[in-house]
Design a protein that fits this description.
The protein is α/β, with parallel strands linked by helices. It is 32% helix and 22% strand. The longest helix has 20 residues. The termini are far apart.
């Protein structure tokens, strides 16, 4: 696990490719908070790009990626938020040696992820993936406790999501062959990896729901295997349509010296959301341990998106060797995702014949 405090000292110019909802709801609000400089935007739908530029005071709107590349200075950071199928065509148009932040996931499957990795290596592109949960303010607070040794050795991570997600608002998911793990639980897989490293193996089952039969899967159970002394479980259900009171989403992290429970509200009553909470307990010899609350400024959306871009800037400035969220690292998140789907398809161990 790396722990790099934000922020980069120098504000490199950002050029955005894509003007969809994630750019408008998360990227650009985050960059405004951080004081990052966005100088240009392009979208295949020029009208959307113009509207986004007007809303966020972006001075240049381009008609093509080629036009943007000609205009952008050598130290520009390209923020690419396009459908996964368009990632490689966009990378082919960007200059060699560019700094690029790619929207997650890293392609639609592990094969595509490897193609993206190979292309960035060939073109010497400094590329990162926007697995931004790593940089949510409450996760940075956990990393600070870990960095200071206050939690001890981590031995248990549990992520539990029981909410109602209106999947219909994302049209492209209706026909997608993969949904829940690839577009949602992948954040949690990436977070576990970021904290514990790569697992030995992955067990998983992802399922459909009778209320949403058109979607490939909307619920998942994922076990990331780190041997006999560490437990890492991810449990998600996006079909809890029984009112808000029993919806929940939490991350529990336990170590040999302390524990943290984060209730993250972004998914509750989505997209309205609810308040987050951060509670922790530290064990001290001779003292009675008590749970404490800590106020955390900011949340997953939009604040975590600052961290993803900041990593790219720090790497471009030479402050760190490579971004924490580099394609070289995130390819392993995609490998875990692929293993989860393979495990789900192969199924469990059948029961023995009746005695």
């Amino acid at each position: 696990m790396q722990y790099n405090k934000p922020l980069s000292s120098k504000q490199l110019p950002i050029y955005i490719i894509g003007a969809g909802s994630i750019i408008n709801a998360a990227h650009l609000p985050a960059y405004q908070i951080a004081g990052f400089t966005v100088l240009g935007i392009y979208d295949i739908d020029h009208t959307k790009a113009v509207a986004t530029a007007a809303n966020f005071n972006i001075p240049h709107v381009f008609f093509s990626v080629e036009e943007m590349v000609k205009h952008a200075p050598a130290n520009a950071v390209f923020d690419v938020a396009v459908p996964g199928s368009q990632t490689i065509p966009i990378l082919n148009q960007l200059p060699e040696g560019a700094t690029v932040l790619l929207q997650k996931p890293m392609g639609e499957n592990y094969t595509a992820a490897k193609e993206i990795l190979d292309l960035t290596r060939q073109k010497k592109i400094r590329a990162g993936i926007n697995f931004q949960l790593r940089y949510a303010p409450y996760i940075l607070a956990v990393k600070d406790l870990i960095h200071k040794g206050l939690l001890g050795e981590l031995n248990d991570i549990e992520i539990n999501v029981n909410v109602y997600t209106p999947w219909h608002i994302w049209d492209f998911l209706q026909a997608a062959p993969r949904v829940e793990i690839l577009y949602h639980s992948i954040h949690y897989i990436d977070l576990v990896r970021n904290l514990l490293g790569n697992p030995q193996s992955v067990y998983a089952k992802t399922t459909k729901h009778p209320a949403m039969p058109q979607l490939s899967s909307v619920r998942s159970n994922i076990i990331m295997d780190y041997g006999d002394m560490i437990r890492a479980n991810i449990l998600t259900n996006h079909c809890h349509n029984y009112g808000i009171p029993k919806q929940q989403s939490y991350i529990k992290i336990e170590g040999s010296k302390g524990a943290v429970i984060i209730n993250f509200g972004a998914l509750i009553n989505y997209p309205r959301g609810a308040a987050d909470s951060f509670e922790f307990i530290l064990l001290e010899e001779g003292k009675e341990a008590q749970w404490q609350k800590k106020e955390i400024e900011g949340s997953w959306f939009p604040h975590a998106f600052i961290g993803s871009m900041d990593q790219m800037m720090q790497a471009a400035e030479g402050k760190i060797e490579q971004p924490d969220n580099s394609v070289e690292d995130c390819i392993d998140t995609m490998a875990c995702m692929e293993a989860a789907y393979k495990s789900s398809e192969e199924g469990g161990v059948p029961l023995p014949p009746p005695a």
